[in-house]
């Protein structure tokens, strides 16, 4: 893990693999994670991994029984009332494809998917209308704080 100034570890490790993720986007993702951690009053240690459609389809099939790609999957490894560890997978090709559908550029969509993944790790879901509204409200608030409104398309 990269150490930050003052010797503190970042709460997130980003693995881009063959996908190009700019240093400025990595910084925004880490800032977003820190804002979510602060706002939710939890500790989050996670790896964010960029993958392609074939790998995402395989994960989606294995863990959700869906034979198609998806944009983001989150897997908690350890979770309790204060601390969460996990992995988030983002399909870089799917993020690029769906960005225009939400009025985003690719960077804005990746930030939206990152926020979505962080919130899933922290226990938020969207199985009911009420859960969906709460999760997306939080997602939008954290993105707005980053000046990267996104979810249903504004900036980025």
SSE layout:
Blueprint: E1 12-15, H1 23-40, E2 43-51, H2 53-64, E3 72-79, E4 83-91, H3 92-98, H4 106-121, H5 129-145
Parallel strand pairs: 1-2, 2-4
Antiparallel strand pairs: 3-4
- What percentage of residues falls in helices of 4 or more residues? 40-55%
Biggest sheet descriptor: 4 strands, mixed
Secondary-structure class: alpha/beta
Q: Which CATH architecture would you pick?
A: 3-Layer(aba) Sandwich
Low-confidence spans: 1-8, 149-156
Helix and strand string, N-terminal first? EHEHEEHHH
At CATH level 3, the topology is Collagenase (Catalytic Domain)
* CA radius of gyration: 15 Å
The beta-strand count equals: 4
Outline? globular
Total count of domains:
1
Number of helices, where a helix is a run of at least 4 consecutive DSSP H or I residues: 5
The end-to-end span amounts to 28 Å
CATH class term: Alpha Beta
| Average pLDDT metric | 86
The percent range for strand residues is 15-25%
């Amino acid at each position: 893990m990269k150490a930050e100034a003052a010797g503190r570890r970042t709460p997130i490790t980003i693995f881009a693999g063959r996908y190009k993720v700019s240093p400025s986007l990595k910084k925004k993702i880490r800032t977003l994670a820190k804002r979510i951690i602060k706002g939710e009053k939890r500790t989050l240690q996670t790896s964010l991994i960029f993958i392609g459609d074939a790998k995402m389809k395989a994960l989606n099939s294995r863990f959700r029984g869906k034979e198609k790609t998806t944009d983001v999957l989150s897997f908690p490894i350890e979770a309790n009332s204060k601390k969460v560890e996990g992995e988030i997978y983002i399909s870089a090709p799917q993020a690029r494809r769906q960005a225009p559908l939400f009025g985003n550029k690719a960077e804005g969509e990746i930030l939206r998917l990152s926020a979505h993944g962080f919130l899933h790790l922290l226990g938020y879901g969207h199985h009911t209308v009420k859960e969906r509204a709460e999760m997306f409200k939080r997602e939008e608030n954290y993105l707005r704080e980053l000046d990267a409104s996104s979810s249903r398309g504004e900036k980025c």
